[in-house]
């Protein structure tokens, strides 16, 4: 089926949604993240290792892991493939690259994965209703090498 100009505009809105999602996670902006997600969200991150059955449970789970000044992360979504299924439904695949540093736990992670999302349009705006990813690879370094120095940290305001 041919992609229409209307589809292109909808796809761009979905791309902007996913970009906001990644930025909200990395900045620990839980209110902004909530705006990206359906209340009835389901997740299966890391092949189901982190599964949640509501927006509130998902955000609570992320807060428990990430919401401290000693946990730094970067999530980047690349190469989106988004398919408009109907006027208010779409799905997408994203290539994820993530990097995490847990200064308290003394480990670093670098990985890649493929995100699979489902989107719905409610009240005129796209939101994520299903999300999850499967790892392509993941590396963990522990302990953090002594030569690694964190020289900037958004969350450490000393």
TrEMBL record:
**UniProt entry keywords in alphabetical sequence:** Lyase
Q: Which enzyme type, at the first EC level?
A: lyase
Q: Which SUPFAM superfamilies match?
A: NTF2-like
Q: Kindly give the Gene3D superfamilies that the UniProt entry links to this protein.
A: 3.10.450.50
What molecular function terms (GO) are annotated for this protein? bile-acid 7alpha-dehydratase activity
- EC no. given is 4.2.1.106
- The lineage's top-level taxon is Bacteria
**What residue stretches are annotated with the SnoaL-like domain?**
8-129
The name of this protein is: Bile acid 7-alpha dehydratase
Lineage of source species? Bacteria, Pseudomonadati, Pseudomonadota, Gammaproteobacteria, Pseudomonadales
């Amino acid at each position: 089926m041919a992609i229409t100009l209307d589809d292109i505009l909808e796809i761009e809105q979905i791309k902007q949604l996913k970009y906001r999602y990644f930025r909200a996670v990395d900045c620990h902006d839980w209110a902004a993240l909530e705006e990206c997600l359906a209340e009835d969200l389901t997740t299966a991150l890391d092949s189901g290792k982190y599964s949640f059955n509501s927006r509130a449970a998902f955000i609570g789970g992320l807060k428990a892991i990430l919401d401290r000044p000693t946990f730094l992360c970067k999530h980047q979504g690349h190469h989106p493939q988004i398919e408009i299924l109907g006027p208010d439904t779409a799905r997408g695949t994203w290539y994820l690259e993530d990097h995490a540093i847990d200064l308290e736990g003394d480990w670093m992670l670098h990985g890649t994965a493929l995100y699979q999302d489902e989107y719905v349009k409610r009240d005129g705006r796209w939101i994520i209703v299903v999300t999850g990813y499967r790892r392509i690879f993941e590396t963990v370094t522990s302990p953090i090498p002594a030569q690694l120095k964190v020289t900037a940290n958004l969350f450490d305001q000393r």
